[in-house]
Backbone:
């Protein structure tokens, strides 16, 4: 489970933006993943290591949603991306 | 976050983004030749090496890759000639990896070392395609005209697999190896290696038809389409082609082609930026208008539902992308026969099953 203090950064998988979506290629497991515009923005934010709280704030501001909605959605998204090995998580104390 | 699918590239995500890239004219897939040189002399090769022309410098290639990325390229195929003959092959792969491109490598496999594979394993290579022309050294080496090339390539395949990278066999079928095709498929199955079959021998880039004397006979073509390729459907004809829409090729002299099989220089990246050529070249505008059936004769042809028109084959045979390639027609006839025969076979087996059920009942 990802906590607010944790940091996330993306893996170095091949990817490309096509219109609003991001296509990510996992060469090892031979999978392709497609992120919609919100997922793509999160992927962009993960270019460098980011605390979950920073990602939530950025998305809440840009998409004009309240923090708790952003937190619930982003946490769920990052959990899924972690399971798919698209990101790495660092647990901070 | 939505879907995940297996098997790059056959997934529905791949089909969807390819379709989008075709419509939006994004060069999603680019084939890049760092060098035309090759250490083999395959009988069927389409490649013409021009020793009067200078190949691109490493710096130009290194600078080209971010241009391709910026233009929308995701899948970069590094091919040749034999790409490993380029002294900075690994450097080129590293540049593409650093820009998060999905790299495929087309190689004959004779020059790959264990140490190179260890380096490639760090670079998110999607797959390495090895050209294999037979199930025996005798047949394969006679086609490559290089002694021991078969053993080297097959050993390379095992080595790549041991290091956890994905490897595929590219089988080009011709008169000289068709008798071994079942053994070739058996070899791939035994080694656990997926394969692609190509039954088309193309003319050389300058239109020289000499390699096509190796083309499969009508009968063997029918055999391939009936037994080996996925079942042809009743309506195969696609009306457009991705060349110049979501795909292009760049040779080692910097010429940009709409497709490696359509070697018309749309521009040269030694003089112009890639995106300039992609957006403004007369040849790219021309190919984007290509639609089949391209001639009145095609629209009323008995094989129109089975044809896979290729502007490249049209051009190589007739010097006109709207010309009619006799070889394409020949393949359409073979596909139609294969579909017809499969339907006949299905009918025969249905009759047999009914009789069996009746016998068991009594």
Residues:
């Amino acid at each position: 489970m990802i906590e607010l203090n944790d940091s996330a950064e993306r893996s170095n998988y091949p990817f490309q933006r096509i219109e609003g979506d991001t296509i990510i290629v996992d060469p090892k497991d031979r999978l392709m993943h497609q992120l919609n515009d919100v997922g793509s923005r999160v992927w962009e934010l993960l270019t460098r290591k980011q605390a979950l709280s920073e990602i939530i704030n950025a998305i809440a501001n840009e998409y004009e949603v309240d923090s708790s909605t952003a937190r619930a959605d982003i946490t769920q998204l990052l959990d899924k991306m972690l399971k798919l090995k698209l990101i790495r998580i660092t647990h901070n104390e | 976050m939505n879907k995940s699918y297996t098997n790059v590239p056959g997934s529905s995500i791949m089909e969807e983004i390819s379709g989008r890239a075709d419509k939006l004219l994004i060069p999603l897939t680019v084939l890049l030749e760092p060098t035309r040189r090759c250490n083999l002399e395959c009988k069927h090769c389409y490649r013409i090496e021009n020793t009067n022309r200078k190949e691109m410098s490493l710096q130009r290639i290194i600078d080209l890759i971010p241009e391709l990325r910026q233009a929308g390229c995701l899948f970069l195929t590094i091919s040749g000639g034999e790409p490993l003959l380029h002294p900075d092959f690994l450097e080129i792969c590293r540049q593409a990896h650093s820009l998060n491109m999905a790299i495929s490598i087309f190689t004959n496999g004779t020059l790959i070392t264990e140490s190179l594979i260890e380096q490639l394993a760090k670079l998110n290579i999607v797959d390495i395609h090895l050209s294999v022309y037979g199930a025996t050294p005798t047949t394969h080496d006679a086609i490559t005209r290089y002694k021991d090339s078969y053993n080297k390539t097959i050993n390379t395949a095992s080595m790549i697999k041991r290091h956890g990278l994905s490897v595929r066999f590219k089988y080009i079928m011709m008169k000289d190896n068709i008798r071994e095709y079942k053994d070739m498929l058996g070899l791939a199955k035994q080694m656990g290696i997926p394969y692609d079959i190509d039954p088309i021998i193309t003319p050389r880039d300058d239109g020289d038809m000499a390699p096509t004397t190796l083309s499969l006979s009508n009968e063997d073509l029918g055999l391939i389409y009936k037994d080996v390729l996925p079942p042809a459907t009743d309506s195969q004809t696609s009306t457009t082609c991705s060349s110049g829409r979501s795909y292009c090729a760049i040779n080692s002299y910097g010429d940009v082609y709409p497709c490696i099989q359509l070697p018309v220089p749309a521009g040269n990246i030694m003089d112009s930026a890639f995106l300039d050529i992609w957006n403004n070249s007369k040849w790219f505008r021309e190919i984007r208008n290509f639609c089949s059936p391209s001639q009145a004769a095609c629209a009323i042809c008995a094989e129109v539902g089975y044809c896979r028109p290729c502007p490249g084959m049209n051009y190589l045979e007739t010097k006109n992308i709207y010309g009619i390639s006799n070889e394409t027609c020949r393949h359409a006839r073979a596909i139609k026969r294969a579909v017809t025969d499969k339907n006949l076979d299905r009918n025969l087996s249905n009759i047999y099953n009914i009789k069996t059920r009746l016998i068991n009942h009594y």
